[in-house]
Target: ERF family protein
Amino acid sequence: MASEKLNLYQKIIEVRKSIGKITKDSTAGKGSKFSYDYVSGSLILSKIKEEMNNQKLLFTPLIKDKNYKQVDTTNRYGKPETNYIVELDLSYKWINADNPEETLEIPFYAIGEQSDPSKAFGTALTYSERYVLLKMFNLPTDEDDADAKPQQSKQQKKQPQQQRQDAGKVELVKNNANVLAKILTANDQPMTQQDVISAYLNGGNLKDVSNEALVEISNRIKAKIEDYKKRDQAKEQENK
Model:
């Protein structure tokens, strides 16, 4: 089937068909109590680039709004540490170069955290691109692949009390993520609970997060929820 006879959606399907088998090429959490394998963004791009060129497709990010925050905290050694959080309201657009007016726009929300603001910005973009492509082409992730199992250390098996303490904090993160997902979806940014959690963990796994980090993540999600509530209240006042 000649590419010029295909519409945008048919071309995207051709790209998906060209991917073939894909295996997880990267490992997160090395040296920690839990580690897991995942599909890297660079691997996904290498798998689709050739067919995208053949089909004359463009895939580009469009940043609609951004927010920077400085977070002063302490590291695990008790020393002061400054991190930067970048939140992005953006979308990714597919463009059919044979007919540039034919496009597909995918709204998304991304977050990145690093010790440098530019790196945090890059982390948010890199993660969001990877996650959009994973979902776009129905590629397996660590959480939806039954063959992906965390490698639990002997030390972790000996700490049931700590696991019980973590469970409540994990549940709090999930509850807040669920609330934020509903708010984002209502604001034309369709997200699931897992999408929000993955965004705040940059694709990581909740099981690999410390108690202190779980509390921090939960608070950050809650702060975002409050931001949206304030925006809604301000809009209501304007409309009165």
Q: What stands out?
A: The radius of gyration is 20 Å. The beta strands are 26-28, 36-38, 57-74, 80-96, 103-114. The longest strand covers residues 57-74. Helices lie at 8-19, 41-55, 117-136, 154-157, 160-186, 193-200, 211-239.
